[in-house]
Design brief:
This protein has a 5-stranded mixed beta sheet with strand order 3-2-1-6-7, covered by helices on one side. A two-stranded antiparallel ribbon has the order 4-5. By secondary structure, the chain is of the alpha/beta class. About 35% of the residues lie in helices and about 20% in strands. α2 packs parallel to α3 and α3 packs across α4. The protein has one domain.
Length: about 180
């Protein structure tokens, strides 16, 4: 009887799978060299996104819905009318594409320690989806295909033209916002 119980135990240990949380996939930029300060960023090139402890989303200090965040992010990066309140563009030489205007915009995401994980992930998903949609649109315009259908060189070019510029601050207690 003990042998059968042992074999059953071994069988279940070998065949059972464990769920592993993989987290949010983000590639961090390389750290700056020691003693070198990061370059200053103009205020207009930062889109401030804040989630308070009551799961309220504030964009540039104003209440916003998560469902509106994607379009707000896309408008911030694109800035087709060169609005002084949205991000600037800098002309860069991108391989395969030549001289093109690239947004200097950075999304600054900050959350309270009391923010729910669900709200945090919802905001993260909307910000990432906005950048993915911009990359898809850019890829269709320049290469006639969606971003995920591009070859490695084309993909690198689109990533340089439409960077994923999302900065996350350490969570802190943000009372009353």
């Amino acid at each position: 009887m003990a042998d059968i119980a042992f074999l059953l135990l071994i069988f279940f240990l070998v065949t059972t799978t464990m769920d592993v949380d993989s987290g949010i996939a983000r590639m961090l930029p390389p750290p700056p060299p020691p003693g070198v300060d990061p370059p200053p960023i103009k205020e207009r090139n930062i889109l401030k996104v804040l989630i308070n402890s009551k799961d309220m989303l504030l964009v540039e200090g104003k209440p916003a819905a998560v469902s509106d965040l994607r379009e707000m992010t896309k408008a911030f990066f694109l800035n087709p009318a060169n609005d002084k309140d949205l991000s600037e563009k800098k002309v860069k030489n991108v391989p395969l594409l030549g001289e093109i205007p690239v947004s200097k915009g950075v999304i600054s995401l900050k959350n309270d320690r009391g923010t729910s994980y669900k709200m945090y992930v919802s905001v993260q998903n909307e910000l990432a989806a906005a950048v993915h949609e911009l990359r898809d649109d850019f890829a269709k315009k320049h290469f006639g295909k969606k971003f995920n259908e591009l070859n490695e060189q084309q993909s690198k070019a689109v990533k340089k033209a439409v960077p994923m510029a999302i900065s996350e601050a350490e969570p802190e207690n943000i009372e009353g916002n």
